[in-house]
Design goal:
- Chains A, B: It is an enzyme of class 6 (ligase).
- Chains A, B: One of its GO terms (cellular component) is cytosol.
- Chains A, B: Catalyzes the first step in the biosynthesis of NAD from nicotinic acid, the ATP-dependent synthesis of beta-nicotinate D-ribonucleotide from nicotinate and 5-phospho-D-ribose 1-phosphate.
- The structure is a homodimer.
- With about 450 residues, chain A is an alpha/beta fold.
- Chain A has a domain of about 260 residues: nicotinate phosphoribosyltransferase (Alpha-Beta Barrel), CATH 3.20.140.10.
- Chain A has 16 helices and 19 strands.
- Chain A has a 7-stranded antiparallel beta sheet with strand order 13-12-1-5-3-17-18.
- In chain A, helix 2 runs antiparallel to helix 6.
- The longest helix of chain A has 25 residues.
- Chain A is elongated, with a radius of gyration of 26 Å.
- Chains A and B meet through helix 1, helix 2, helix 3, helix 6 and helix 7 of A and helix 1, helix 2, helix 3, helix 6 and helix 7 of B.
């Protein structure tokens, strides 16, 4: 079977690490089913100054459909650690917990919970792997894409950014969900047809070098393609870029109104220099409307550099570096137990500690600009806008957790990003430009939990 | 629908860039259906000195089942560029070409075709995106995993390497195919249950910090877990690592033969120092059989460093840095037209040129060690072992292209990797240690193709 190894409802419960299932069996055997609180958050940022939360929709889909099919149970029965009575119990397993989350598209910062899961401990534990997988990946890509979109519009000009990453993303799920995440962060279109179908995204594309090479000459290729697609974008760098531009000009003079090529694409060489020369040639030929698109190894830094150098580029096709978030291909996400059976919990390791108990994140504004986030305990009164909403109650979505059109998520992201200090959104921002602080009540809870833990350990050692 | 956006037979033809379909329509309108040759190869390596080819099986599955379902055609009908007659033609579309490929698990080098597709140009063009996606990703991960396995065994000791990457891979396809690729490259097991089911891989796992924290004390957690899993691996660093080790020793003294804990896992701190101290404690307690496993931010460099420092570690759990190939998350792969209608083709751009026409790669040996690869024309006689096999003929798999058990692919990889000079397999290898040369006949074809292209361009300009 060709695609048998893909995620599907009948085996989706197996999208987990083995130890989640062995721990689940242990909790079941020990009758440990008190509510646990798990937080999903990012520990530290590197080369990022804000994140764009993404992937919650897939996390909720997973939780609301989580169950062990016969196929899944048959497989687990072949694995040594599992006993028959546990597998019988698994057959009726479902997720019955509550979930609190920051809406997709919201900018977030380290230590802030993107998601809090409150559920019988085994259920909350089992959710870890899939939630981390989808939210880490989509937040990684949305955050990278946001930087690229910001770079393309740093001077206030509205330039097009298209996702061309599909060929080098990490598999098919990455291609589709990555296009979704990049769209949330503000890109305009994707080349990925499957993502276009799955999420109703604008799809786009130009032509490949191979098309030009397969024809007897470049001009023949341009003529054939633009006859079929009169408003297309022609790729001009297969042999000699400026020669290619001149052929486009000749073609448009030759065909008159029939062909209104929308643009040319540059994919190699010194893009700033070639864009300038191409612009001059086109303008001199009275073709000021013909746009210039650039592609080839682009990211926020190369785009900022091109625009700094005054390159007259109207749109960017961004591939591998966005689709793999090449400079930081993963975020330092964690999913940590912060409470069990009504008691806050935490790890002590200084590098890997976490904030105990349920929490709320409150964003504070000055003159419409977000200036500070306060991480507070769940129920205290704090000035500002709370970010976490209850999106699932007793295993069912709440109204706040209902699926939203991707266009609405994208608008939410744009509005929330616009509230951030603009200096924070530049590729070279200083992360010190935004404060994230703990409330006094949360500080106190951290100290109390640490003290209680020290007492337990002293008692154990005695 | 929860997993509607996943790759499946009914929409798999949409796993492509839009321009492949617009070019396909153009070729159809222009009656261009002569055989084309496309090569899939890697241009340049960075921080890698050899690659492990991987992903061919998924490429062949895609090609042999490639078709446009009603759902796919319905979607394309909503997209502007496509005309009804073309969509009717697509309804009967199938891949009818030949495919030549290097067997999965074979070490390969830059410029060597991993795959050559020979098919009517539109078919070969349409295959580009999916083939690049799967082969780039799986080869990226197999190559990274191979470096990690080599580092873990650099001194000839056989240490365990397990894949713990699922939580931060780029989505679900990356998690499953990544585990497949890493297994081909020689890892021993994965934590990913879905991959275990899909590919019959050994699955493994220990316990999480949350399990320890949810119990009233660390020792209670150890007691409960090892009672259920007497040969388990206990995670000792939740509060204080050496304290944790002492509790494991106490537990084993207390339970006698009932509990034979297989090992302990260290996940934070100075792993070399902690491994040494833990080893001493265990040995002094007569527990020389209890193994020490390490995890937490590992890759080939940190593993080599730990072993250099004499850390007595028996196995490594490697996560994000292997699962995302964090230092090089993509390879510089290309899929280039090298022939059309019987004539060799190439691009001229010096950075992006390709080798024209069909080819063969021949590996030459001295005393059982591979010392040189010759990239030759497809039919010349060259001493050595040819790497490319015909795996598909007229759209059907040949015997050489039949699906192979993953264990056989893994053995092939191990045998072929063993033939490489050992210095090339060290993390700090010098890529100059291996030669890849063109045969005289191929050199001549390059020169002839370049000359012919120059003539065409001169004629066009005149």
């Amino acid at each position: 079977m060709p695609f048998d190894d893909q995620l599907r409802p009948d085996t989706s419960a197996l999208y987990t690490d083995l130890y989640q299932l062995t721990m689940l069996q242990a909790y079941w055997r020990e009758d440990m089913d008190e509510p646990a609180v798990f937080d999903l958050f990012v520990r530290r940022l590197k080369d990022r100054h804000y994140l764009v939360a993404c992937g919650l929709e897939q996390a909720l889909e997973f939780l609301e459909t989580l169950s062990f099919s016969e196929a899944a149970l048959d497989y687990l029965a072949t694995q040594d650690p599992f006993e028959p009575a546990f597998l019988d119990w698994l057959a009726d397993f479902e997720f019955t917990g509550d979930v609190y989350a920051v809406p997709e598209g919201t900018p977030v910062f380290p230590d802030e919970p993107l998601v809090e899961v409150v559920a019988p401990i085994g259920e909350a534990q089992l959710a870890e792997t899939f939630l981390l997988n989808q939210i880490t990946f989509q937040t990684t890509i949305a955050s990278k894409a946001s930087r690229i979109v910001e770079a393309a519009q740093l001077d206030g000009e509205d330039r097009i950014v298209a996702d061309f990453g599909m060929r080098r993303t990490h598999g098919t799920d990455a291609a589709v969900k990555g296009a979704r995440a990049a769209y949330v962060a503000g890109i305009d279109a994707t080349s990925n047809v499957a993502a276009g179908q799955a999420y109703d995204l604008p799809v786009t594309g130009t032509m490949a070098h191979s098309y030009v090479e397969a024809h007897d000459s470049e001009v023949e290729a341009f003529r054939a393609f633009s006859a079929l697609y009169p408003e297309t974008i022609l790729l001009v760098d297969t042999y000699d870029t400026l020669d290619g531009v001149r052929k486009v000009i000749d073609l448009m003079n030759e065909t008159g109104d029939e062909v209104q090529v929308r643009g040319i694409r540059l994919d190699s060489g010194d893009l700033a220099e070639l864009a300038r020369s191409s612009r001059t040639l086109l303008d001199e030929a009275g073709l000021a409307d013909v746009m210039i698109f650039a592609s080839g190894g682009l990211d926020e830094h190369t785009i900022a550099d091109l625009l700094d150098r005054g390159a007259p580029i109207d749109g960017f096709g961004v591939g591998t570096r966005m689709g793999t978030s090449a400079d930081q291909p993963a975020l330092d996400t964690a999913y940590k137990l912060s409470g069990y059976a009504g008691t806050p919990r935490m790890k002590l390791a200084p590098e890997k500690s976490n904030l105990p108990g349920r929490k709320q994140v409150v964003r504070q504004y000055e003159d419409g600009t977000a200036v500070r986030d306060v991480i507070a305990t769940e129920d205290e009164q704090t000035n500002g806008a709370p970010l976490l909403e209850r999106v699932m109650a007793d295993g069912k979505r709440t109204e706040a957790g209902a699926p939203r059109p991707l266009s609405a998520i994208r608008e939410h992201a744009a509005a929330r990003l616009d509230e951030l200090p603009s200096r924070l959104r530049a590729p070279t921002a200083n992360p010190e430009d935004y404060d994230v602080v703990l409330s006094d009540a949360l500080e106190k809870r951290v100290a109390d939990t640490r003290d209680a833990l020290a007492e337990t350990m002293a008692a154990e050692a005695a």
